[in-house]
Design a protein that fits this description.
By secondary structure, the protein is mainly α. It has a domain of 39 residues. The chain contains 3 helices and no strands. Helix 1 crosses helix 3. The longest helix has 15 residues. The N and C termini lie far apart (40 Å). The mean pLDDT is 79.
Length: 81
Amino acid sequence: MAPQMYEFHLPLSPEELLKSGGVNQYVVQEVLSIRHLPPQLRAFQAAFRAQGPLAMLEHFDTIYSILHGVPPLPGASSYPG
């Protein structure tokens, strides 16, 4: 059986990850609040230990929520565009 192929497209802005654009596209289903992140982060860590990087696909909302909640660094630019 041939391995399944994935295409990965970088969005121009993080908000584009919140919009569904097609079949087999990873989008954010829910941006988790700070209160809900600790148990989800523990679940992601356990899955990452067991599955490696593929766990990121299963826990996409958790990863996005962590990055979404991080304030930008002073003087840092956002996505190029």
